[in-house]
Amino acid sequence: MATLLLRLVAPMQAWGTRSRFVDRDTEAEPSKSGVLGLCAAALGIDRADPVEHLARLAFGVRVDREGVAGTDYHTAQLRPGDPRTRTDVTRRAYLADAAFWAGLEGDRALLTELHAALQTPHWPLSLGRKAFAPSLPIFARSPLEVSLWDALRTAPSLRRGDEGGPYRLVLDWEAVPPPLRASASPSRRQDVPDGPFARRRYLSRDVLTVTLPLAPEPDPLLRLAPPEEVSA
Which domain holds residue 217? Predict the structure, then answer.
């Protein structure tokens, strides 16, 4: 087994799990369905194609920068040009100036293929919505021969120099070390694709949120990128 880390940094991100046409939500951190959708775009997997091989990967997130939650509004028409159409005002939530590491653990061959695809994606990549392009490369190192838990704990910091405090990790229940599971209770997230993305059906998974006082080294890319490329 191996773990692949994905760097998710952008001026705006959105990771909805309960969205409807006029109300698009976002979770406080990336969803499994959203990250797998990004991976499918990199690999060139059509929305009508199966993604069970991706859904089987263990998933976790480390929150380096929470970001600021916001909402904007759009107008949309169901049948443009049709005299019977109506114009709806839609509410769309987002996270501004957030930074995350997402980790996928599983078959090394699949993760190696995915790592290569993230460098030369088949379709453009975005963080939850088409307009939300990443401001730093999503791909990091090639798959690591460590657990998802260890990969997230030791990933470089995506924080700025004046930001401190513990880090929040949200992982699949099975990916958390047994001693931590013994004294905790999982919560549920309904964000595992049940068949092709076109079906819009999702299964639940058990997750555990853990807060840790980590001290990772800064990500070298943050020192190379101009400030306006890593903030809103």
Answer: 2-229
Q: Residue 33 — φ and ψ, nearest 5°?
A: -60, -40
Task: Report the SS3 class of residue 120.
Answer: coil
Distance CA 217, CA 64 (A): 12
Q: How many CB atoms sit inside 10 A of residue 151's CB?
A: 24
- Give the domain CATH number at 21: 3.30.70.2660
Q: How far apart are CA 187 and CA 171, in angstroms?
A: 10
DSSP bridge pairs for 188: 206
Asked whether the predicted pLDDT for residue 20 surpasses 70, the reply is no
Alpha helices (H) along 16-158: 32-43, 52-55, 108-119, 148-154
| Overall number of domains in the chain | 1
* pLDDT > 80? residue 145: yes
And the tokens for 206?
């058990």
**Cα 2 to Cα 108: distance, rounded to the nearest angstrom:** 5
- The reported pTM is 0.89
Q: Report the length, in residues, of the chain.
A: 232
Model confidence at 230, in pLDDT bands (50, 70, 90)? very low
Q: Pairing relation of β-strands 187-193 and 202-212?
A: antiparallel
Please identify which residue in the block is written with the tokens 């807060």: 211
